[in-house]
Specification:
This protein has 359 residues and is of the alpha+beta class. The protein has helices spanning 2-21, 25-36, 42-53, 59-96, 114-127, 142-145, 186-194, 235-250, 309-315, 331-339, 352-355, and strands spanning 132-133, 139-141, 178-180, 199-208, 220-230, 256-263, 266-275, 284-285, 288-289, 298-307, 323-330. The radius of gyration is 43 Å and the shape is elongated. The structure holds phenylalanine (PHE).
Length: 359
């Protein structure tokens, strides 16, 4: 009986040691199976061995004691597993706990780029007049950028456009050679090719010219083209439309002035000037000459004119039946005036300190 007690003590000590070591769920399961598996767990083996070893007349007492020890061992195991589970769920609750006093994570809001913003505003003005929006490719052919716009091959007017040509095109006929469009006017041709009059479209987009970047030049900039073709469209319609658009953009007190100019695809052609928004058209400000308009009181803003009848020949419109006007304006130039920006490069440098002001 003393030997039995000693063995029982050792057994309990062993199970407690192992119980303390259980760290994970899988370890717990292994531990439980090792001791309690019905077929050859330690308890089953102990039960058989100890009962077998007991002398015949002590079998009853030994059996009772063995049962007690078994219950104790089983309880130890069950307790150990339960504690393990409690600890695990407590720590996962800790992790899930929400501290509503913590400050939130601030996500900076994106803002429309000032050029896109200006472009959308201008497009909006013309949408309200019933114009729709057309777009065209930035990589154009000589035909759309020049020829169909009445720039004959080798005409000096081509030189005014500082064109960037795509290399190794010499084997193609001139009209098929590729270049980066120098203006949005090719979209006029593409639109008239696919639509019959009446046409009223604006065409916003990016254009390219071989200009060295400085405060007032950029090799990449944006334009908005306009085209209206219908029966009986006159220069008065052009004047009224652009005067309205400038007032919408710069305020109702702004005046417009049409100055004779030249473009191969319009006849007559004009440059549009608006009264200087900095000096109110007076030409002087703060007791000195206005620097923004060079004391003239006027700022040149865009080119326009009545569509040249030669252009209709390229798109199968009958110049005896229809007439129309076109205009093209630089978006950067408008944004510079509207927001008082002194360096065009700011639009392209991607400096958030500049850009976030437009949020
Ligand atoms: N495409 C011309 C330019 O970029 C502007 C223009 C457009 C002029 C439409 C007249 C009519 O200089």
């Amino acid at each position: 009986m003393a030997a039995l007690e000693k063995a029982a003590e050792n057994l309990l000590a062993a199970v407690r040691r192992e119980a303390a070591e259980v760290r994970s769920e899988s370890q717990g399961k292994e531990f439980r199976d090792r001791w309690m598996a019905r077929k050859n767990g330690i308890l089953t083996q102990v039960n058989d061995l100890w009962l077998k070893a007991a002398p015949k007349d002590a079998k009853r007492d030994v059996g009772q004691r063995v049962n007690e020890v078994k219950t104790q061992v089983e309880q130890t195991i069950v307790d150990a597993l339960e504690n393990k589970q409690k600890a695990a769920s407590a720590s996962s609750k800790d992790a899930e706990r929400l501290d509503i006093t913590l400050p939130g994570i601030r996500r900076p809001l994106g803002a429309e780029h000032p050029i896109i913003k200006t472009m959308n505003e201008m497009v909006g003005v013309f949408r309200n007049l019933g114009y729709s929006v057309e777009e065209g490719p930035e990589i154009e052919t000589d035909y759309y950028n020049f020829e169909a716009l009445n720039f004959p091959p080798n005409h000096p007017a081509r030189d005014t456009q500082d064109t960037l040509f795509i290399a190794n095109q010499e084997s193609k006929p001139l009209r098929d050679r590729l270049l980066l469009r120098t203006h949005t006017s090719p979209v006029q041709i593409r639109t008239m090719e696919k639509m019959k009059p009446p046409v009223r479209v604006v065409c916003p987009g990016k254009v390219h010219r071989n200009d060295a970047p400085d405060a007032t030049h950029s090799p990449i900039f944006h334009q908005i083209e306009g085209l209206a073709v219908d029966t009986n469209i006159t220069f008065s319609d052009l004047k009224g439309t652009l005067d309205h658009a400038m007032k919408e953009m710069f305020g109702s007190s702004v005046k417009t002035r049409f100055y004779p100019s030249f473009f191969p695809f319009t006849e007559p052609s004009a440059d549009v000037q608006i009264s200087c928004i900095f000096c109110g058209g007076r030409g002087y400000r703060d007791g000195g000459p206005c620097r923004n308009c060079k004391a003239s009181g006027w700022i040149e803003l865009l080119g326009c004119g009545m569509v040249d009848p030669n252009v209709y020949g390229f798109v199968d419109y009958d110049p005896k039946k229809v007439s129309g006007f076109a205009f093209g304006m630089g978006v950067e130039r408008i944004a510079i005036l509207k927001y008082g920006v002194d360096d065009i490069q700011l639009f392209f440098n991607g400096d958030v300190r500049f850009l976030e002001q437009f949020a």
